Amino acid sequence: MGHTPSDTIAVVGAGVMGRSITALALGRGVHVVLVDVSEEVLGNARAEIAQQLRHGQFMGAFPGSPAPGTLTTTQSTSEVADAAVVIEAITEDASLKARVMADISSTVPAGVPLITNTSGIPIAELAKSVQRPAELAGVHFMNPAYLIEMVEVIRGPQTGDDAMAAILSVLERLGKKTVVVRDAPGFVTSRLLHPMINEAARVVAEGTASVEAVDRLMHGCLGHPTGPLRTADLIGLDNLADALRLLAERTGNLTFEPCELLMEKVRRGDLGRKTGRGFYDYGKVLS
Amino acid sequence: MSMDQAVTAEGIEQAITEFVSGRVKAEVPADEDLFASGLVSSMFAMELVVHLEQAFSVQILGDDLKRDNFRTVQAMTALVARLRGVEQPADA
């Protein structure tokens, strides 16, 4: 109501990344239409996003303290039609993403760029499902999106200049620094980070060092901000296993297959911070 | 209600110290700068906010929601004590 289209973005998928991206936009004064198939997930998302906005404010992530954007939650993708840009942030499952991208693409008018938030699915692959491949690009947001300053932008082989310019301008509006890379499985950050996390878990499983020791070494000796296993807990171990499998399938490198310790944690439901336990124990889940 | 009456500045400080040291698995002196020492990450910082609100039935809003109020156990104790109207030494 009364919002000019350029003030509104749409986010499809209200999981870990969809929430965090929504909080980023709201904190920067941009309105968000958040779509998910589950009313229950949307309810939980509203509560968590409110908390994330406080977190962002607490950490000084929203300079100038603009009035927060308004959040609209809906189960219908038809409500994304008026957005300046649509960010797809559903589960890291290539066929599911392809289906959702096709649905979004048939809903939004020409000229509205589509962003897929993926940690490693090639953009060229998803471009096959959309009506206007020139208007699709990838943006790999890091979690929490409202705190981490930089994003990895992936220009697919078919991505057009207009869409790139529009997407970079939206990201600038959201206060993000960007590095644009070419399309490949895992792009740059996941291609490097995910196998490192997988190896870190193997090191622990082989008894070479404890979880804490691995992270302390990577932090203290190599300057990694938290250590790979703490990062894994923040990413979510289920997502990490999905991303590693995608990387193994698409590069043919079988050492990228998620290791046994990682899979065991996923089977037990110890998915990291979001469930209260992963490689570390976080006590009660942040509510 | 009986719990409320038992809340003193020392009690608050003790409870916060227990929570923080339990989570960072280290001794935490009340005046240690938790952010500078790297004991508290940006993620744990927010858990601290939520924990204090729930444990002490307070709401931490607006200008109170800043890192300086959470930098040390002492600072958190002073914040909670103020929000609960607990008497505290003038130099706290």
UniProtKB/TrEMBL annotation, chain A:
Pathway: Lipid metabolism; butanoate metabolism
Annotated site residues (Important for catalytic activity) in this chain: H140
Binding site for NAD(+): G13, A14, G15, V16, M17, G18, D36, E92, K97, S119, N143, K274
Keyword terms: NAD, Oxidoreductase
Any single Pfam family the record assigns to this protein: 3HCDH_N
InterPro entries named in the record: 3-OHacyl-CoA_DH, 3-OHacyl-CoA_DH_NAD-bd, 3HC_DH_C, 6-PGluconate_DH-like_C_sf, 6PGD_dom2, NAD(P)-bd_dom_sf
GO biological process: fatty acid metabolic process
Top-rank taxon: Bacteria
Residue ranges of domain 3-hydroxyacyl-CoA dehydrogenase C-terminal in the record: 186-282
Location of the 3-hydroxyacyl-CoA dehydrogenase NAD binding domain: 8-183
Keyword NAD set for record: yes
Molecular function as annotated in GO: NAD+ binding; oxidoreductase activity, acting on the CH-OH group of donors, NAD or NADP as acceptor
Similarity comment: Belongs to the 3-hydroxyacyl-CoA dehydrogenase family.
Protein name, per record: 3-hydroxyacyl-CoA dehydrogenase family protein
UniProt organism field: Streptomyces malaysiensis subsp. samsunensis
